[in-house]
Amino acid sequence: MNYDDFLELVKKRRSFRRFKSDPVPKEILEKVLEAARHSPSAGNSQPWEFVVVQDVATKKSITQSITSGYKKIRKADPTMYWAVAVQPHLSTAPVLIIVCGDRRLQETYPVHLPGEVLLRQSLAISIYTLQLAAASFGLATAWATMQTELREVQIRKLLGIPDVYTVDHIVPLGYPDEEKEKSDKALRPVRERASFRRELAEIVHYEHYDMGKFRSDEKIKEFIWSKTVTRIPRIK
Ligand SMILES: Cc1cc2nc3c(=O)[nH]c(=O)nc-3n(C[C@H](O)[C@H](O)[C@H](O)COP(=O)(O)O)c2cc1C
Hints:
The chain is an alpha+beta fold. It has a single domain (3-185), classed as NADH Oxidase (3-Layer(aba) Sandwich). The protein has helices at residues 3-12, 26-37, 56-76, 81-86, 117-136, 149-159, 178-183, 188-194, 200-203, 217-227, and strands spanning 48-53, 95-102, 140-141, 144-145, 165-174. Strands 1, 2, 3, 4 and 5 form a five-stranded antiparallel sheet that branches. The termini are far apart. The model has no long low-confidence stretch (mean pLDDT 90). The structure holds flavin mononucleotide. Flavin mononucleotide binds next to β4. Flavin mononucleotide (FMN) binds at residues 14-15, 17, 86, 142-145, 194, 229.
């Protein structure tokens, strides 16, 4: 594979949150998971395990559990527009992949950083590999984060996942419904902001940190409120 093909794949992977009902063939699903299996991990600990959920009722329960949590968050903070707007997509995806991380494997690491950092970094890489592999088949994915311990507990119970695992990421997988994605008003602000990327010249420093590129606190605030997809003021 040359660089152009690789970059094309990287750009092809975008978050999609509206899915067609067409099932994902098992052989393709397994190829996507196979790619994730080859991801790098801290100390080669491979802490990931994937629970694949296709049962409609189970997907609904998972979605309800997550959205009810987000509704509470949004009630307390109306700027969390994004959270509620995008989570209901989970139940429409033909496949939900619940990414679990075995906390016991933290003992592998030569250093212990707070917050299970190396474990979570390893899981994140496996998710990204999975997303790239899915994109290579024209499949859509998104990344859904469970925000509270409560959600994690509920989902662990629902799926019978032992306590030793972290359960904080879910990847919906399916064929993208591009029409719905484009026409869904709830997704518009997210879609518009998500395609934005900072310029290379802004983010790369050669030899030492270039203070000319350092962003003030005000600039960071402005960036968060105008460019990121999480904080979007309530839209009537
Ligand atoms: C660590 C992480 C957590 C994320 N959590 C969520 C989430 O809970 N819900 C969601 O819809 N998207 C989530 N996303 C997707 C981002 O919003 C998305 O990647 C970003 O807006 C850029 O858009 P793109 O994926 O289309 O390039 C998450 C992405 C990452 C890397």
